[in-house]
Design goal:
This protein is 35% helix and 24% strand. By secondary structure, it is an alpha/beta fold. A hairpin with a 2-residue loop joins strand 1 and strand 2. The termini are far apart. The relative contact order is 0.18.
Length: 254
């Protein structure tokens, strides 16, 4: 089991945001966290990444999440947020190299025999090897997000957590980002958990889904099992599938 959450609850500001949610993620799976605004998706992701306090139990690669040191957690889990930014003119290569921090050993933490090779692999994976010496501040939004994805991949995590990573990217960069992540998760010993608002992306790329509504689970299983017409209508209070099909009508004559 790559990731297991049992009866996870999160309270913020005296209010319960996530209530008694459980799920599992196995090798090769891509779990989509879906639901309306305010459903608790990003809060749940914050709990399982240990960014937020929670009750319940979470295991990462068979280890209790609370038992892992910071460097152990970083070697097993990588997190990419929707607004990954830098206020300094680091080069692309420098940004990607920061993902090796948890693997450094020795005096002042500088010994990392595999570091250079892993940086090269990450730069190649995100298609930014030719821009390695360019400042991230000069990149387009999509390129910048790929640079930070390269940083996360350089950590060599087993589980990748994505919080709306392509939410503000145009279609070309959305496609590139999801294709990169999909290729990554298909290799042995890897899995992905994503927060998404676009249900079309969830159905296209996800293997499994967790449907949240008002902080509670409304369904967990394969994407087709969870994102049914009835379930979506119950949660969103509208015929979601009908609306999706209606919006696609304009493309039939293109």
């Amino acid at each position: 089991m790559m990731l297991r959450a049992e009866h996870v609850s999160v309270g913020l500001g005296g209010k319960r945001i996530v209530e008694d949610v459980s799920f599992t993620v196995r090798e090769g799976e891509w779990l989509m966290l879906v639901g309306p605004n305010g459903a608790g998706k990003s809060t749940l992701l914050g709990a399982v990444s240990r960014a937020l306090p929670f009750t319940g139990e979470v295991e990462l690669c068979g280890r209790p999440l609370r038992s892992l040191s910071g460097s152990e957690l970083a070697r097993r889990m990588g997190v990419l947020c929707q607004h990954a930014t830098s206020t300094y003119a680091f080069t692309v290569e420098e940004v990607v190299s920061m993902g090796r921090y948890a693997h450094q050993r020795g005096l002042l933490g500088r010994s990392d025999p595999e570091g250079a090779a892993r940086v090269e692999e990450a730069l190649a994976a995100v298609g930014l090897a030719e821009k390695r010496h360019q400042s991230v501040l000069t990149l387009s939004g999509g390129e910048r997000q790929r640079a930070f994805l390269g940083q996360v991949l350089c950590q060599q995590p087993a589980v990748l957590l994505l919080d709306e990573p392509a939410n503000h990217l145009d279609l070309v960069y959305q496609k590139q980002l999801f294709e990169l992540v999909d290729a990554w998760r298909r290799k042995p010993g890897r899995a992905v958990v994503s927060v998404v608002h676009d249900l079309s992306l969830a159905r296209r790329w996800g293997t499994h889904a967790l449907l949240l509504h008002q902080g509670r689970s409304e369904g967990f299983g394969t994407v087709r099992e969870v994102l049914t017409r009835d379930a979506m209508a119950r949660v969103w209070q509208m015929d979601v599938a009908g609306w999706m099909l209606e919006t696609l009508e304009g493309w039939r004559e293109v």
